[in-house]
Specification:
This protein is an alpha/beta fold and 322 residues long. Helices cover 44% and strands 17% of the residues. The protein is built from eleven helices and ten strands. A hairpin with a 5-residue loop joins β6 and β7. The model has no long low-confidence stretch (mean pLDDT 94).
């Protein structure tokens, strides 16, 4: 079986809205999903312009349809996997079922802010060569309070020129802030099935290396950070950094040969710093298991010396900030 299965073009004559907003679910938090759906429906331009659908990965404890308002049940499509297939296959199902020209895979606990679809469509229309488009996002906590943001890729709207820096060395975009032309997926295949944590990063690197990426610095999406998210489980095992290391190796072939080795080295250094920062935060919360898992994974990513140096820089920076 291929690591990233093909995405077939739609049959000729298929009715094509501009957008397909596909929401993959797996045992969703009902309140989070309700807010996710509301944020889309508040911007709904109608079925001729937007497909909206839930794609459930065989949830057994929660029925995602219960999060739908009564007046939205006829508007929002619904499908369910016959068995639990995992993140990659469910996201690929989202793409396969998408009829729109542009696909937005919106996570079940994230949000879009007013103007998301209008602003991105205006940028897409102005940049016909773009194969994907992204906005800046806001990090929110479990209660919806802002706790962080995303760094600028460029100060004004336009095509991202330094995509190696912003996508390969360090990822400066998140899935729910990104829309992708369906034909881009068709040309590159779907998400890898042998990755779980870094499968989206792997895809964004494949996209950035293949097609122009349009960007707006407007903050038009929200990424929710909470204790029950799948990412937290990966961090407790150190599996996040292990997959990051594998993704760096897998994507080296996408880079210009003269830049590949140096770019991969810088990416490993960047994510060593990221892992040590996660370890520091875990220690502050007395989560020794997560801290040790992050440090051990970081050591395998680079070296014991590099981890020690990153911890030293972090300790000095924290001391100066007091």
């Amino acid at each position: 079986m291929r690591d990233h299965p093909p995405i077939s073009p739609l049959p000729a004559g298929t009715t094509r809205p501009f957008w397909s907003v596909m929401i993959p679910t797996r045992e969703p938090h009902p309140d989070y999903l309700r807010r996710t759906l509301a944020s889309v429906l508040e911007q709904d331009p109608g079925p001729e312009a937007m497909q909206i659908a839930l794609v459930d990965d065989c949830s057994s404890r929660v029925d995602p349809r219960q999060s739908l308002r009564a007046d939205a049940r006829a508007r929002v499509g619904w499908s369910r996997q016959a068995r639990h297939v995992g993140i990659g296959r469910n996201w690929n199902t989202c793409i396969e079922q998408a009829r729109g020209q542009w696909v937005h895979i919106l996570h079940q606990d994230d949000l879009v802010l007013p103007g998301f679809y209008l602003r991105l469509r205006s940028g897409i229309d102005a940049s016909p060569s773009a194969g994907a488009a992204v906005c800046r996002d806001v990090v929110i906590d479990a209660d919806g309070r802002r706790v962080g943001g995303q760094r600028l890729l460029r100060p004004t709207p336009g095509i991202v020129e330094d995509w190696i820096e912003h996508v390969f060395v360090g990822l400066a975009l998140r899935a729910s802030a990104l829309v992708v032309k369906r034909s881009t997926y068709e040309g590159l295949d779907g998400f890898r099935l042998d990755l779980q944590y870094a499968l989206d990063w792997d895809m964004w690197k494949r996209i950035a290396a293949a097609v122009p990426l349009w960007y707006t610095p407007d903050e038009l999406a929200c990424y929710r950070r909470h204790a029950d998210s799948a990412s937290v489980g990966f961090q407790r095992r150190g599996a996040n950094i292990a997959e990051i290391g594998r993704s760096i190796a897998l994507s080296e072939s996408l880079l210009p040969p003269e830049l590949a080795a140096a770019t991969s080295r810088r990416a490993r250094q960047n994510y060593t710093r990221y892992a040590t920062d996660l370890a520091w935060r875990a220690l502050a919360q007395r989560d020794l298991q997560s801290a040790l898992a992050q440090l051990c994974a970081a050591r395998r990513l680079t070296s014991t010396l590099a981890v020690a140096q990153a911890l030293g820089r972090l300790a000095r920076a924290r001391a100066l900030s007091r």
